[in-house]
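Margin note: ligand = magnesium ion.
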Amino acid sequence: MRDLSIIVLAAGQGTRMKSRLPKVLHQVANRSMLGHVLGLAQDMQPARLVVVHGPGEEGAAVAAEARAQAPDVLLAEQAERLGTGHAVMQALPALEGFGGTVLVLYGDVPLLRREVLQELLALVSAERPVAVLGFEAADPGSYGRLLTTADGQELEAIVEAKDATPEQLRISLCNSGVMAVDAGLLRRLLPRLSADNRQGEYYLTDLVALARGEELRVGLALCDEQDVLGVNDRVQLAEAERVMQRRLREQAMRAGATFTAPDTVFLSVDTEIGRDVIIGPFVVFGPGVRVADDVVIHSHCHLEGAVVEQGAQVGPFARLRPGAVIEAGAKVGNFVEIKNATVEVGAKVNHLSYIGDARVGADANIGAGTITCNYDGYMKHRTDIGKGAFIGSNTALVAPVKVGDGALVAAGSTITRDVPENALAIERAEQRMSEGWAARYRERKAAEKARRKG
Ligand code: UD1
Ligand code: MG
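Resulting structure:
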């Protein structure tokens, strides 16, 4: 939208998080809260997007995350934390020459949705140059209270809880903090804010009364409390996570995936899940996972930075780490860890294996307990297993090493040299046998035990 600019306030200290990390960098569904807000902001395609960050190291970390999430972002520093109105003032230089509507968002409100913002923006017009997003709060607590016009449709003022009369505190219609204002009006009214209030801050919310003082109308859009949940501590962070997880699961289910026990599955914002995928209970998707159609992920799997291609099966109890690619129809079974490795079409790694820095060729079969020994304490090395190869159980493949197409490695071998195509490699001590030894042993031991008791 060419006539829309967005300011994201993210200069707050977030003391209640009790954290070394700036509040807006805490994550929900594996993306920072600031990332969520900037993702939404970018969806709105604003002419300009400004993030107001704090000073020092914390502020620099916030600025860096803003740049990482939105390369075109403009940054404004608020050196002193003098209130939301003061924070918006710091963004004005970045909006120089812009004449449309300015939307103010908070960096710690990660659950906002685009539809909600569109409803708010639709209220802004020449005679109604300000609009505020409000909600009915179950527990209004410290939220600013919305004072409406007689018909309840528009706003007269916003009173901060700390400045409110007992009567005003009984109002449950609250300010979300999200506001849309005409840019010209914003420039004209901001310098008129005063810090003459209980907190000694320049409140952005006072803009409403200032606009009314000029006989201008102030619109009111309503949304669910959930959409504007502000995260101030870790309990609210967990609540935001809960809501976000439910949204992500529902989105995946609506797109054609079955979740046997949805409440036990955890997704990341960027998790991609195809159609006719079945996901069992207790599965965790870290960042960067793509699951193609017809895949089955059995219970208790952990996936991160991995791709699972069509019709493959994973788990139960499998771990796919970054760089794992499970190609079509391949199987990765219980207690198997795959890292930076491709399991090609139709190959099987069914039990108790570690496959790292490797290729498992098409239709190869990896026996139980096979380990790619990829690390020598200093460097990582690759293992290459050819197509149709058979690796017997309890094999250690000491990388760098290659097993040719169709080769067979006997169980229990420690393979340190390349195995040619279609060869047999066996590396074991010869088996010795002693006839009757076990029977004689039992006899001797039983007699010894009887002597001691007697
Ligand atoms: C604010 C609103 C309140 C509303 C509530 C909703 C004001 C005066 N009050 O109160 O009406 O009900 O949000 O959650 O606006 N920030 C800065 N610089 C500052 C101060 C704040 O960047 O100097 C940022 C914070 O990082 C945060 C946002 O602005 O993202 C809100 O600040 P916060 O202190 O949480 O305001 P509330 O007291 O919650
Ligand atoms: Mg707040």
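The pocket of uridine-diphosphate-N-acetylglucosamine (ligand 1) is lined by residues 9-12, 52, 78, 81-84, 86-87, 106-108, 143-144, 158, 160, 174-177, 203-205, 230 (CB under 6 Å).
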